[in-house]
Structures are given as C-alpha cells and as structure tokens.
Amino acid sequence: YTRQEYGLDALAAARAGLLHDLFLYDWHSHRPEPGEGLHGFTHPRRALENAEQEFELNDLEREIILHHMWPLTITPPRHRESYIVLWQDKLCSLRETFCLPNPFAAKTET
Questions:
Q1: Cβ–Cβ under 8 Å, residues 17 and 85
Q2: What does each C-alpha distance from 75 to 26, 36, 50, 66 come to in angstroms?
C-alpha cells in the first residue's frame, strides 16, 4: 500500500517526526523552574516553539508535534499522521527503556 492510497501526508509526518523532540535540553538532568511543569507534559510545546523559530511549519506538522505525548497532553490528536508519530515515539522509548534490540538496525558482521 502507498501513502496515497491512505491519503496520508508522509512529508508532514516525517518533518514533525524529526522535530517533535526539539526541546534543546537533556531531560534526564534538566531541573524545571518553579511552575514550569514536568518534561512529559511541557516538552511538546517547547519543541513546537523551537521548531517554529527555525522552520516554517504547516498546521498538520504543528498538531503532530503538540500531541505526540498524548495522553499526557490530554487533548487527543486529530490526524492519522499524528497517531503514527505518537506510536512510533512510544515504541522507541520502550525499546530504549528496556534495552530492547532495534529490529531495523543494520546488522554488523563479527
């Protein structure tokens, strides 16, 4: 199946997928300022602000970046592309957290 058959905007999904974590700090060691909130709840907005300073984004790209942490962001995504980025992000973080192998990594010869 191709993206055209599903009516998806692959370019917007790819751009937002690359920019969705553009928060420019190490969240492992970052100490929030008073009233700043926890990283999981606040970094989508910060990533969007940083991305908009460097790139011209369309509405779909903005929506993907803002809602990629759902359900922490409370408002669910409205577009299928958002769910694709959201679930891929969750799969990657699970792999990182539990040190699971990446099935798409290039195999190295020993």
A1: yes
A2: 26, 19, 21, 9
- Is residue 47 helix, strand or coil? helix
Scanning the structure block, which residue is given the tokens 């369309």? Answer: 58
Give the type of residue at 22: L
Of 17, 13, 4, 1, nearest to 80 (Cα)? Answer: 13
Whats the size of the chain, residue-wise? 110
Residue with tokens 């790819």: 14
DSSP 76: P
58 band by pLDDT with thresholds 50, 70 and 90: very high
pTM: 0.77
Q: Would you state the structure tokens that stand for residue 88, as one six-digit string? A: 């891929």
